[in-house]
Sequence to fold (391 residues):
Amino acid sequence: MGRKLIAPLNYLYRQLRPFLFSRDAEKMHDRMLSSVEIFSKLPGFHSLLRSQFFYENPLLRTQLFVKNITNPIGLAAGFDKDGRIHPSLFALGFGFVEIGTVTPRPQEGNPRPRLFRLKEDQAVINRMGFNNQGACKMAERLNTNRLKIKPADTHIFECSKDYHANIASGMLGINIGKNHDTAIDKASEDYVSALSTLYPFAEYFTLNISSPNTENLRKLQKKEALRILLDSVCAKRDKLDKNFSRKTPLLVKLAPDTDEESLENTSRVIQEFSIQGLIASNTTVERTKLKSKFQTETGGLSGKPLQKKSTAMIRNLFAELGKGIPIIGVGGIFNGADAYEKIKAGAAAVQIYTALIYEGPGIVLKVKAELANLLKKDGYKSVSEAIGTDH
Ligand SMILES: Cc1cc2nc3c(=O)[nH]c(=O)nc-3n(C[C@H](O)[C@H](O)[C@H](O)COP(=O)(O)O)c2cc1C
Fold:
C-alpha cells in the first residue's frame, strides 16, 4: 500500500503542480477535462488508472440508498459539470460520482475570471454560475456511453436498469439546478425538466438549491418555496419511478450559511416529503481568517476554511434527523481523519472536490486507506457502524 500511496501518476501531478498553479485555474481545469476525455478513448487507459489508484478494504464497503458501494468517498458536484469524464473518475476509486450542476438549457455562467485558488488557505473561491451544456447534451453523452457499453441496446433514452449495472461498480448521481434567467417562482419547472430529461441515467438526483452564484437560488431553502419545489419534483420523480418500476433517490444540497433555526425549518420541510438524502454542504459566502490575496473575490469558498463549518452543519442535521435520512458530508476533506470526523458527526458518506485540486488524483486512495486504518484502530467492522458515533 505504501508504494501505491505515491502512485507514479500522482507523483507526476505533484511535480507539475507549481506549473499548473501558475496558470489560470479554469483554463487548467478545462484542459484537464479535455485531455482525460481524449485519453479515455485509448484502450487500457481506465485499466491504467485503476491499477495506479486501486485500494479496496471490506471496512469501507457500505450501502447508500440501498445500493452497495465499495467505499463511501464520492466526488462532489461541479468538477465534471457536463458528465464528460465520469468513467475515468470512477477509475480513480471513487465509490460514487456526482456530475452537474446541469440546468435544463445550456448557459455560459458568469464572466471570467470566476475561479480562484487560495493556495495559502488550501481553498478555492468560485463564482462559476452553473456554466454547463444543458440537460439534453448531458443526456446524449450519457446515452452514447451506454451504447458503447451495451451495443445491442439501440433504444435511445430507454430507461434500462442495465445502464446502471454497467456504468461502473460505483454510483452515478446527477446534480440539477435552474437556469439563471428562470424566475425564482418558476424554479420548480426547471428542476422537473432537468430531472425528466436525465431520469434514465441517474442513480440519484441532487437538487442544488444552495449555490451562492445564482441570484436568489438559496431562497429555495425557505419553508414555503421549498415546499412548492419538493412537491412538484417529488411528484414527477414518483410518476417516472412508477412507470419504470424504479426507485430514484432524491437528495437536497444545502448551504452552510444558515443559522440553526433556519436549518431546523428546512430539515422539517424535507421530512414532509419523500427525500432520501441531504448533502451538507455547498460552498460558503463567509470569509474568516484567510491569507490569500483572492480572499475578497465574490463567490463560494471551499476547501480547508469550510471544513469545521460543514462538519458542524452535519452534526446539527444528524441531531435532528438521526439515521432516518442519510447525510453526505462535504467541505474541506483532505485526508482520512477529515472524512472520519464527518462520518462520526453523522455523515453516511462524504464527497471531495477542492482537495483533488491541491493533492491530485491520489487523494482518493489516500483518504480511503487512512479512513480504513482509523476504523480498524477504533475496532469498527464497517464504516456504517461509525456513522454519528460522536452523538
Ligand atoms: C470550482 C467549483 C465548482 C463547483 N460547482 C458546483 C456545482 O456546480 N454544483 C454544486 O452543487 N456544487 C458545486 N461546488 C461545490 C462542491 O460540490 C462542494 O460542495 C464544495 O466545494 C465543498 O467541498 P470541498 O471543500 O471538498 O471542495 C463547486 C465547488 C467548486 C470548488
Q: What stands out?
A: The radius of gyration is 19 Å. Residues 149-163 have pLDDT under 50 and may be disordered. The domain at 2-386 is CATH 3.20.20.70 (TIM Barrel).
